[in-house]
């Protein structure tokens, strides 16, 4: 994901031609978490676009789920796309859901994995304490079923964020915003076809969260990945792509 295109206020990765799949990363998620998706779908008739969300660069008043959803809509308009498929993990899933609520006319389909939006402590417990490297390493390992996926590089990145005062304040602001923007009342009115792919062993947003999303959304399909934590597309990229592709074909997207 080195080749980011920079245009105006936007920075993004883009590959392939066809129906646009726009991917929204989570709080800790570098764009590279979606390497598997970015490799696979351009070979199957989709354009994959991954914008860098301004999580740590927006004014604090715009550091919330609603403002990020508007940022996504502005990006879609800027790119000249009529309607898109949104895929989001963790906070990115919440932003995708909120975008779907606010701008359904822009949506062809929605894919969420390990998404916040229903489960109150989803973000609350996952932001790190400052300073304590061992604690942060444990938190990073908890994101995955296989703790080895939390490489030193990933732990270092989270550790650096936790020790950057401004980033920490913004992370807490986002966590509070995620709790404030609970989607439970909105979901039953959201008719966009939705694919829910969840790790059976997700400790951050447990499996019952996926079941609740599936119950509340009128047009959803739920798929499970075994031996899998909070970042399914990173921990089991091939299985994630297979499930997502099957759903796209089944839904004619």
Automatic annotation (TrEMBL):
Annotated Gene Ontology cellular components are: membrane
Return any one Pfam family short name: Abhydrolase_1
- Molecular function GO labels: hydrolase activity
Q: Where is the AB hydrolase-1 domain?
A: 20-115, 166-237
Hydrolase is among the record's keywords: yes
- Alphabetic keyword roster: Hydrolase
The organism's superkingdom is given as: Bacteria
Please give the InterPro entries that the UniProt record associates with this protein. Answer: AB_hydrolase_1, AB_hydrolase_fold, AB_hydrolase_sf
Q: Which PANTHER family match?
A: HYDROLASE, PUTATIVE (AFU_ORTHOLOGUE AFUA_2G14860)-RELATED, MONOACYLGLYCEROL LIPASE
Write down what this protein is called: Alpha/beta hydrolase
Q: From which organism does this entry originate? A: Flavobacterium macacae
Its taxonomic path starts at: Bacteria, Pseudomonadati, Bacteroidota, Flavobacteriia, Flavobacteriales
């Amino acid at each position: 994901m080195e080749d980011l295109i920079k245009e105006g206020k936007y920075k993004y990765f883009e590959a392939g031609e066809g129906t646009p799949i726009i991917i929204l990363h989570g709080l800790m998620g570098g764009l590279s978490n979606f390497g598997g998706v970015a490799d696979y779908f351009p070979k199957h008739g989709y354009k994959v676009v991954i914008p860098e969300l301004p999580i740590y660069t927006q004014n604090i008043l715009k550091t919330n789920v609603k403002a990020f959803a508007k940022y996504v809509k502005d990006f879609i308009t800027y790119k000249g796309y009529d309607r898109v498929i949104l895929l989001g993990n963790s906070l990115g899933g919440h932003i995708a859901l909120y975008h779907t609520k606010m701008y359904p006319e822009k949506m062809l389909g929605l894919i969420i994995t390990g998404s916040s939006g229903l489960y109150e402590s989803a973000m609350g417990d996952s932001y790190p304490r400052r300073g304590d490297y061992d604690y942060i390493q444990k938190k990073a390992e908890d994101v995955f079923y296989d703790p080895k996926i939390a490489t030193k590089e990933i732990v270092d990145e989270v550790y650096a964020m936790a020790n950057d005062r401004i980033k920490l304040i913004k992370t807490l602001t986002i966590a509070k915003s995620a709790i404030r923007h609970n989607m439970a009342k909105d979901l039953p009115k959201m008719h966009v076809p939705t694919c829910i792919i969840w790790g059976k062993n997700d400790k951050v947003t447990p499996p019952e969260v996926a079941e609740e999303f599936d119950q509340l959304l009128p047009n959803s399909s739920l798929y499970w990945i075994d031996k899998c934590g909070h970042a399914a597309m990173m921990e089991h990229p091939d299985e994630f792509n297979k499930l997502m592709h099957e759903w796209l074909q089944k839904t004619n997207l």
